[in-house]
């Protein structure tokens, strides 16, 4: 889970954990050393006092003791050893009796036991004060590590954040944009900036090649398309048999559709969607009426029933070329994949649906059909599987959304939700 945290937070966490471990080990070491020294010093002190006491007792003198130390011996009827200390081994020991604690020093001489017992209250107070200081130092070191970690993380991440903002900026793809590496030191951040300069340079070249290719292709295609469209207009003015007139109309529709595709591809390769607005603006109803008339005839010729329904009124205006491209591709798709039944173009407020009673789309393929060159197991027509990919690309360019679902008992429904902003 730590690897999923932001990098700056990981620096703070790592810095704090490191200080927590080091300070914890250091504090435990202090406590252990203090406890060990305490036992050693008290043992040495009680050993010296025992020597003095035994010397006094040997001289027939009362033992010299401070107020916190008591003397017990098996040889004295007045200072008999209490039952609490009767089993202490020779040497230094600590005995706890409820809330009371004692240091006990025992010495055995010719089957006689001599004990010095000292209360621990004074030592415990000093020890507790030391432990409080150690705990306070531990907590302060952790808090200081957290604050220092935040400051260090902010300082370390500042050039990374700046570099990320520069890379995300649109102007960085401009041909005259200055290189990023020149602003950074020759360190890891500078090397990362150099790598971004190299990647952005390759991307600029790729985009420039795509723009030049698309511009050249669109320019070269416009002339023959204009000739085809003009020829169709001239042929429509001539008296022709119905079959030939239908063929001329079909050629004209294909030329118009190709012109829309040329304009669509030209717009899509631009760096900014707002730089170009080819085709003007149109309402959803007007484009739908045009496409319904355009695709209704071939659908009826195939024996399908075509329905044009309006479930809601949408008064917004949209890019005519893009809207025609999306709607035309979806209607063509419905025509190819519907053998019998009905195709519906349904308008609603803020979007439209294209419904058919065709073959349907398996659930596991509904996401993949929008990928380039994916046609599915039930492919129809001679296309390459780019129509729905183009539709999704146009929708993403305009801020629209497209989704597909199944219809019962069979068929598919493509729903396009449009952005009302012009």
UniProtKB/TrEMBL annotation:
Its main location: membrane. It catalyses: ATP + protein L-histidine = ADP + protein N-phospho-L-histidine. Keywords: Kinase, Membrane, Phosphoprotein, Transferase, Transmembrane, Transmembrane helix, Two-component regulatory system. The chain crosses the membrane at residues 12-37. Residues 154-208 form the HAMP domain. Its EC number is 2.7.13.3. Residues 216-422 form the Histidine kinase domain. Pfam families: HAMP (PF00672), HATPase_c (PF02518), HisKA (PF00512). It is found in: Membrane. SUPFAM superfamilies: ATPase domain of HSP90 chaperone/DNA topoisomerase II/histidine kinase, Homodimeric domain of signal transducing histidine kinase. InterPro entries: HAMP_dom, HATPase_C_sf, HATPase_dom, His_kinase_dom, HisK_dim/P_dom, HisK_dim/P_sf, Sig_transdc_His_kin-like_C, TCS_sensor_his_kinase. This is histidine kinase.
């Amino acid at each position: 889970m730590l690897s999923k945290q932001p990098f700056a937070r990981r620096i703070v966490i790592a810095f704090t954990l490191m200080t927590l471990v080091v300070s914890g080990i250091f504090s435990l070491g202090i406590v252990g050393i203090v406890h060990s020294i305490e036992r050693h010093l008290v043992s040495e002190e009680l050993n010296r006092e025992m020597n003095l006491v035994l010397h006094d007792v040997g001289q027939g003198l009362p033992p010299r003791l401070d107020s916190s130390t008591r003397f017990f011996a098996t040889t004295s009827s007045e200072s008999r050893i209490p039952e609490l200390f009767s089993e202490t081994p020779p040497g230094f020991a600590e005995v706890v009796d409820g809330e009371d604690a004692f240091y006990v020093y025992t010495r055995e001489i010719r089957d006689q036991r001599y004990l010095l017992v000292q209360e621990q209250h004074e030592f415990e107070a000093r020890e507790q004060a030391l432990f409080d200081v150690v705990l306070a130092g531990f907590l302060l070191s952790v808090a200081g590590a957290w604050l220092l970690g935040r400051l260090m993380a902010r300082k370390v991440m500042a050039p990374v954040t700046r570099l990320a903002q520069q890379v995300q900026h649109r102007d960085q793809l401009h041909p005259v944009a200055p290189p990023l590496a020149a602003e950074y030191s020759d360190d890891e951040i500078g090397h990362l900036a150099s790598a971004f300069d190299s990647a952005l340079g390759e991307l600029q070249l790729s985009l420039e090649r795509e723009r030049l290719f698309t511009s050249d292709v669109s320019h070269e295609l416009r002339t023959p398309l204009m000739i085809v469209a003009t020829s169709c207009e001239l042929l429509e003015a001539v008296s022709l048999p119905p079959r030939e007139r239908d063929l001329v109309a079909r050629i004209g529709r294909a030329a118009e559709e190709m012109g829309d595709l040329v304009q669509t591809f030209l717009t899509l390769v631009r760096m900014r969607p707002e730089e170009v607005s080819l085709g003007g603006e149109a309402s959803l109803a007007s484009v739908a009426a045009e496409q319904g008339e355009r695709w209704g005839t071939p659908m009826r010729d195939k024996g399908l029933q075509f329905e044009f329904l309006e479930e809601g009124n949408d008064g917004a205006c949209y890019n005519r070329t893009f809207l025609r491209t999306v709607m035309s591709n979806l209607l063509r798709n419905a025509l190819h994949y519907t053998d019998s039944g009905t195709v519906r173009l349904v308008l609603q407020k803020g979007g439209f649906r294209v419904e058919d009673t065709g073959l349907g789309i398996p659930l596991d393929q509904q996401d993949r059909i929008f990928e380039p060159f994916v046609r599915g197991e039930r492919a129809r027509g001679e296309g390459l599987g780019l129509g729905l990919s183009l539709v999704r690309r146009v929708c993403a360019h305009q801020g629209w959304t497209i989704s597909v679902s199944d219809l019962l008992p069979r068929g598919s429904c493509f729903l396009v939700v449009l952005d009302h902003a012009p």
